[in-house]
Amino acid sequence: MINLNNSASLEVHAHWDPIADATYNLHKDSPENIVLFDLSPNEPVREYKGNAFNAFLPASTVAVGDVWELDMDSVIPFLSQFHLGATGKLRHGQKGAFACLRALSPDYADITFRIHAEFTLATRPNPDWKPGSDRRRQVDLARFIPSQYAGRLLINLKTGVICDFSLALPPRNSNVDINDFEYADMVFVPRMELLATPTQTSDDIKWKDVITPEAARRRLELKFYKFAEIDWLPLEDAVKKAEATQRPIHAVLTWGPLVDESC
Length: 263
Known about the structure:
Helices cover 14% and strands 34% of the residues. By secondary structure, the chain is α+β, with helices and mostly antiparallel strands. The strands form two sheets. Strands 1, 3, 4, 6, 7, 10, 11, 14 and 15 form a nine-stranded antiparallel sheet that branches.
């Protein structure tokens, strides 16, 4: 078990760039849309007490490479630094958050995590709602749906102090869906990140047990998507294998990666 030092606090900075590119420019379709999607952090800087980071820790002892589920109610306060409309209740797609112990030494632990969440930017009362009905009381007017958040946590096990923390939207093209008045668009946000100033880097640590960052990310990916176990092949390689084995090809064409929530 990891015990965090609650008397030690950590200053975390939030960065949120404007939408840089879009498929249909839905965010520029009207003055109302520009206001909705002209976003910036709710709190550019926030100070967290040590025990806030219990949100990312396992409930019991784990080994390097083990994966555990995170409590979204404990994770959402971090995302609210971006926007108070943060929620783990996705309308569609794979919900949840998981973490993996990537590296361990007698003095340090390095944890990698992945979060799926979205932001409700605006709502209006539902005229069809009545007490006792199964209809929602509020109707979402605008939603911001990131592909995922990837992050890491570096902990000094001797002192219980957080040495490094980051949580970021992967900066690849078409990394967010936006929904506005029942229309949808795929957009690119260059940077959306929570970042602390590190007091220790993992480069200086001699790990006793470790897996690569890629291996940790892969283990988290498999927790969200069963189909990620499929051995996907580029088309040219698939054709060669089909000819050699005399088996048909099952081809999948997408606008973006299958293994996130951006499309």
